[in-house]
Amino acid sequence: MHHYDSVADFEAAVRRMREELSTKGIKELKSADDVDAELANHKGTTLLFVNSVCGCAAGAARPGLNLALSKAAKKPGKVVTVFAGQDKEATVKARGYFPEIPPSSPSAFLFKDGKVVAAVPRSHIEGNGPEAVARELTQIFEQHCG
User: For the whole model, what pTM was predicted?
Assistant: First the structure.
């Protein structure tokens, strides 16, 4: 676990972790209302990425997601993210959409017409590199996205 010298250092690090996704056009969901607005009754495909401060999020999950989105021929109609441990209300609300799946972060969930059709839990990310994560996400996109 990385130790930060101050709260300001930690907040700066979290901001960079957010920007790694938001600068790529991935929409941050920071409240329960944001989550419902994006996931409830949505038609089409939406990828929900559960971000995290952990090393496997930095080393594999975020770069793998960005790689998949830049290279995949088929992509979800929308890509959104909640930040576990930071935006707690939004994360709890998002996990309520798939209560049968144990919470893990980082992780990714593909929704099609409001239902989860594929999941990439932390166990598929940890110990893998960005290319492996991108491959798994790309296969999911190919299978489920128009």
Answer: 0.92
